[in-house]
Design brief:
- This protein is of the alpha+beta class.
- The protein has one domain: Jelly Rolls (Sandwich).
- A hairpin with a 7-residue loop joins β12 and β13.
- It starts with a helix and ends with a strand.
């Protein structure tokens, strides 16, 4: 009898855990991967709020390359995206206290995510340095990476500057990111820019289609709204 009761309790915990990992906003359902999240009222609107879950996926400050640029995101369910346009509004804050001295408000989008989250493409922002007085820092505002083989550190070693660029943004403000994906190329637009802020000439990922997700990394509180996906 005791074994049966324990089994029922464990099953209930499992069901509740699975349920807690999914959130819905404006008829879009998201599954949380290595992030904590909720639907909150923020500046008068209902938005999705997520933060990297360091209990579920820790990071090593002495070995950042191995423990950042991971699938830490809210993944949009029931979508298979190959080419088209992804647009979302995002607002980045830095946790206080911050678990990472180099926190820059890491926030962005992952796309062409395969079913088991083992491979995808991503473009994200480091808003804190977007208006820095240091040009070298500004040049690191935008980052492309392909999980799992081409994270930021490897790309910098192989082609420093090619997969990063500037963008006049900052933390604590709404930023509109629009990504146009076409075959091996991706173009990113910031806010109302007429021309792309960033272009990835040839993406390096393994996947050609899959889901998309709203992504954050260490020490970021990320708010997202108005996600629009147009497939081609």
């Amino acid at each position: 009898m005791t074994k049966k009761i324990n089994l029922i309790i464990l099953l209930n915990i499992f069901v509740l855990t699975i349920f807690a990992q999914k959130l819905s906003l404006k008829k879009q359902e998201f599954e949380l991967k290595y992030v904590t999240g909720s639907i909150v009222n923020f500046q008068g609107e209902k938005v999705l709020k997520i933060e990297r879950d360091l209990k579920a996926l820790a990071f090593d400050m002495a070995n950042l390359g191995a423990t950042v640029d991971e699938p830490t995101y809210a993944k949009l369910l029931n979508l298979d995206f190959e080419n088209g346009v992804i647009e979302v509004k995002m607002f980045s804050q830095i946790q206080n206290p911050s678990p990472f001295p180099g926190a820059q408000g890491f926030i962005g989008v992952a796309f062409r995510i395969n079913d088991d989250d083992s491979a995808y493409e991503s473009i994200y922002l480091r808003p804190k340095v977007g208006r820095s007085g240091n040009q070298f820092a500004r040049n690191k505002t935008v980052q492309y990476y392909a999980y799992p083989d081409y994270k930021f550190d490897k790309l910098r070693k192989e082609a420093d500057g090619k997969y990063e660029t500037t963008a006049p943004i900052d933390i604590n403000e709404w930023i509109t990111m629009r990504i146009e994906v076409n075959g091996e190329k991706a173009y990113m637009y910031i806010n109302d820019a007429k021309y792309s802020t960033f272009v990835v000439d040839k993406m390096k990922g393994k996947t050609t289609h899959g889901s998309i997700a709203l992504w954050v990394d260490i020490a970021t509180i990320g708010y997202f709204k108005d996600l629009k996906v147009t497939k081609k």
